[in-house]
# Entry
Amino acid sequence: MSTIRDLLTNILREPKNLLVLIITLFVFSGLALLLLLTQYAPAFALNEEIVLILFAGLLALLLRLYYSISQYNPPALSDPRLTITDVPLETTVSSIGQVLEEHRRIEEELRLREERLITTLNSMPHAVITTDQKELITFMNPMAEKLTGWKKQEAIRKPVGDVYRIQEDDQSNKVINPLAPMGKGSKKTKNHQYVLRSRSGSGVWVLSSVARMKSKMGESLGVVIAFQDLSEQKRQEMKMIEEAHLDDLTGLPNRRHLQKSFSGLVGGQRGKNQQLAVMFLDLDRFKSVNDTFGHEVGDLLLKLVSKRFRSLISKNDIVSRIAGDEFIIVLRDIDKPQALGVAHRILDGMKEPFFIRGYRLLVTPSIGISFFPEDGAKLDELLDKADQAMYQAKKSGKNNVQIFDHSRIS
# Structure
């Protein structure tokens, strides 16, 4: 069909070809008419002039067709439509090989990039979890496995909230959706501290951050959660708090801790009509121990005295060292006779000597007692009155107990 189409195009390209075609059509039309007349009109007869004209026209048509065919040139081999079939086989094979090799090179480059990324994520000290658009887990690094208690193979395709279970603090029972703080329009959350509940139910403080992953077109690809273990940091914070509230030598609560504990106790006593007893204890002749045996032995003695005091009172009561050889004991929910009974138990318990580096040491306490709320509502006020009562015990020969009495204070 294409050859006939090109032949006709070649005939119509020149005006003379078109003229011959028109004449030929007239000649054939005339010949067809004459044949019809001779068949259906016997009276009609052909003469020589008519036959000659028809013959000449037919001959001209045949010659022109021959000329057009002889001048027809098929499309060149360089025509793009024919290059596929005319390219040598070895060239085609080589080109296909180059395409495949480039494809393999790109695949290998992508694989290496993915391996480097995974290696980097796996070696990070921080935990990383990624999800898809449906919030289903697609990746976890080893640190995330360790903190959550989930193996990567088990966690893949699970909802992130089932694996990364966080709470506001270690006292809360409510589990938070880790992606909820982001909101729909947010791209990233600020770092926030949570308690992460592992698969076993244990809790660990973590610092968490969540960010959305998007394509260049802005389409959501999921989210990435990065979090780190704050256990050591929390331990250091607690240590600092303890050091700020504990006596360096004995490990007993210091005055600051005592004040905080007392405020809590007083708050709990409101409306209950119950008393607290505040004891002020000072060791008799402790200065002579330091002067005779040295401060190192004196410090060891203070440590042992602290332990003995602790062993002689209830676990719910408070023992505090506020300075040198001065101790404070706060007894809960107690009346005067009961408080005196505890004081005498302490005096009896301190009759046992202490043995330090071959030395036999005996120290006794003088004890003064004040009561909340009878003698005051504030700790400093109660300590001052217990201190006055303690000096009355010193004046009474030491190693005894005195209750604060307004009538005896001049």
The domain at 124-230 is CATH 3.30.450.20 (Beta-Lactamase). The first helix runs from residue 2 to 13. DSSP finds 14 helices and 13 strands in the chain.
